[in-house]
Amino acid sequence: MTDEEFMRDVLQRIATGPTLSKDLSRGDAARAMQIILDGKADDVQAGIFLIALRMKRETDDELAGILDAINSSLTPQPVNVDHLLTIVDPYDGYLRGTPAAPFLPPVLAACGERVVTHGMASVGPKFGATHERVLTATGYRLPSGTADVATRLENDDIGWCYVSQDVLAPSLAALLDLRTRIVKRPCLTTIEVAVNALHPVKGNHLVTGFVHKPYPPVYAALAKAGGFDSSLMVRGVEGGVVPSLTQAARFFTSEDGENLTQIDIEPTTVNIARSERATPLPDALQNNDVRSVKAPENPFAFELSSHAAALGLAALSGEDGYTRDSLVYSGAVILHARGKANSLTSAANLVKEALDSGSALKRFNSALA
User: Is the same domain home to 68 and 206?
Assistant: First the structure.
């Protein structure tokens, strides 16, 4: 069957309404996605494929197949470190609070982890303040290629790196315009979390966030399919890896992609008692109608990114506040889940030491040099 015949057959199977559509095998999903990545399907076919899957609800096999195609299109990059932690926040960023997670990697690096994060500058449906926008506002230099990423991760004075999807997975990033025109959130939003082009010596570990209850097993299965040795899913604010600073939360861990362990947590365990669940928006942006700016290049996201950059640098410099608490709490969850401390409290103390000693700030500044 030619590629054109195959895509026609696939679309006939998955785009026949909520009750008559048929699920794809992992292999068929992979082939269809590979055709799209190779530019052999037109935008109409590609758009129907992504939306039809979303509307009928993707199976684990379909998600894994699409991820197979994406990962097989990447150029593997060896990284000469024993273990690598990949932290992925929502690619579409933040609108309801000021993000702190862009500054989590240098903090964890100061605690002995090697950490990479990835994303895009701006993507729908939220088009919010992203890691890339926030870090760019600090003067952070984006890596030129995956070899540059590996160099920064291997550097004992840095040990962390943010990389754009343009560099990490170029063929996937090339679908950005299509995703913008689709408007609604496609399955790629879920799948791109487990993109895996960087290969450490011993273990690859995925950390991501969620809001809705069905997602932890989905992400755990994707992590396994993508070649990660373990996964950690945190119920965080706006789907990120920072838990609420005001109420109970939970995280899940998995080492086989199937069995999940749930851990319930409270911010008061690490002496955090705030009135807002995340770093609040600045006064100048409080009265904005954030729903009206969900579009590419929206000025709200730029202003929020600049504000987040200033607060992040202040937190790395030892300043108290919501952003520091966010880094302490999320960092403690990750270190505790990774077995780097025997309790959430002791893990939080490790993070506080990294901030108060200046070692986290030093690692951040080393990445700017």
Answer: no
pLDDT in 10s for each residue of the chain, 369 residues: 898 889 999 888 988 877 788 889 999 999 999 999 999 988 999 999 998 898 888 899 999 999 999 999 999 999 999 999 999 999 999 988 999 999 999 999 999 999 999 999 998 888 999 999 999 999 999 999 999 999 999 999 999 999 999 999 999 999 999 998 887 788 899 999 999 999 999 999 999 999 988 999 999 999 999 999 999 999 999 999 999 999 999 999 999 999 999 999 999 999 998 999 999 998 888 876 665 567 777 888 899 999 999 999 999 999 999 999 999 999 999 999 999 999 999 999 999 999 999 999 999 999 987
| Residue in 178, 201, 238 with CA at minimum distance from that of residue 82 | 201
Based on the fold, state whether residues 175 and 292 are members of the same structural domain.
Answer: yes
Q: 115 and 192: one domain?
A: yes
Determine the distance from the C-alpha atom of residue 131 to the mean position of all C-alpha atoms in its chain, rounded to a whole number.
9
Range of the domain at 64: 3-72
Q: Residue 166: what residue type?
A: D
Tokens linked to 328:
């302490």
The predicted model scores a pTM of 0.94
Dihedral of CA atoms 171, 173, 175, 180 in degrees, nearest 10, equals 180
Domain tally, the chain:
2
